[in-house]
Design goal:
The protein has 8 helices and 9 strands. The chain is α/β, with parallel strands linked by helices. It has a domain of about 130 residues: P-loop containing nucleotide triphosphate hydrolases (Rossmann fold, 3-Layer(aba) Sandwich), CATH 3.40.50.300. A 5-stranded parallel β-sheet has the order 2-7-1-8-9, with helices on both faces. A 4-stranded mixed β-sheet has the order 4-3-6-5. α1 crosses α8 and α6 packs antiparallel against α7. The longest helix has 16 residues. The structure holds adenosine-5'-diphosphate (ADP) and guanosine-5'-monophosphate. The site of guanosine-5'-monophosphate has 15 residues, from β5, β6 and α4.
């Protein structure tokens, strides 16, 4: 085993719906191809172009509840009248293998992961929290409307939640403002790259 072998890193990315998380993560994955993505479960319906097992595992409410009851989730939350959750088996074994695993989850989920890390040294040494913020709330509304993927009711729910989510910024280690896409994508790549150099994830004591 190499002197410098590492545990993986768990990167929690949050930000209001429509802020550009998927767009930025897509850019980062093109530059950092070994970045792994945890596929969440959700009870919402797929948007056009979304594929079961690629963007999400699209579950019925009964299937989702069954996974809650059997302890399958690392965290889960009710968001915009739907349920979303991160499967333990999407994350934990990959961290052991040294992979960088990215979670795109809301602030409720981020809080649960913070609490889990307080009780788990394995998680604590690996986890980092990144918030993506819009330059203004007006820009956020324009982007969400521009994406054209929500009903007016879902759009209002998402805009209403945005302020609360951003008010929790102190939960996060990093905040990236997605104004200019190229600059913001560059910042995300820099932050993710820096996690490859952490001392906290080294598996062995060095030079003993
Ligand atoms: P999220 O995953 O956070 O819900 P998306 O990545 O789907 O958000 O982005 C929402 C919309 O905003 C998309 O139509 C996307 O093309 C657009 N968008 C993302 N980043 C920017 C940016 N920096 N400038 C302008 N439009 C952007
Ligand atoms: P969307 O429906 O736009 O794909 O996602 C809506 C919100 O759900 C986003 O804020 C996204 O980060 C969050 N989300 C997606 N998957 C999960 C998950 O597994 N857990 C939690 N807590 N939030 C999630």
């Amino acid at each position: 085993m190499s002197q410098f072998e590492r545990y993986g890193t768990l990167i929690v990315i949050s930000g209001p719906s429509g802020v550009g998380k998927s767009t930025l993560v897509g850019r980062a994955r093109a530059v950092l191809p070994d970045l792994q993505f945890s596929i969440s479960c959700t009870t919402r319906s797929p948007r056009p172009g979304e594929v079961h097992g690629r963007e999400y595992y699209f579950l019925t409410p009964e299937e989702f509840e069954n996974k809650v009851q059997t302890g399958g989730f690392l965290e889960y939350a009710g968001i915009f009248n739907r349920r979303y959750g991160t499967l333990k088996n999407e994350v934990l074994s990959r961290l052991e293998k040294g992979e960088q695993v990215l979670l795109d989850i809301d602030v409720q989920g981020a809080k649960q992961i913070r609490t889990a890390a307080e009780n788990s040294p394995e998680l604590a040494r690996s986890v980092h929290f990144v918030l993506i913020a819009p330059p203004t709330l007006e820009t956020l509304e324009e982007r969400l409307r521009g994406r054209g993927s929500e009903t007016e009711e879902q759009l209002q729910l998402r805009l209403g939640a945005a302020k609360d989510e951003l008010a929790n910024y102190k939960l996060y280690d990093y905040i990236i403002v997605n104004d200019d896409l190229e600059r913001a994508a560059g910042e995300l790549v820099s932050v993710l790259s820096s996690f490859r150099c952490l001392t906290s994830t080294l598996k062995k004591e060095l030079f003993k």
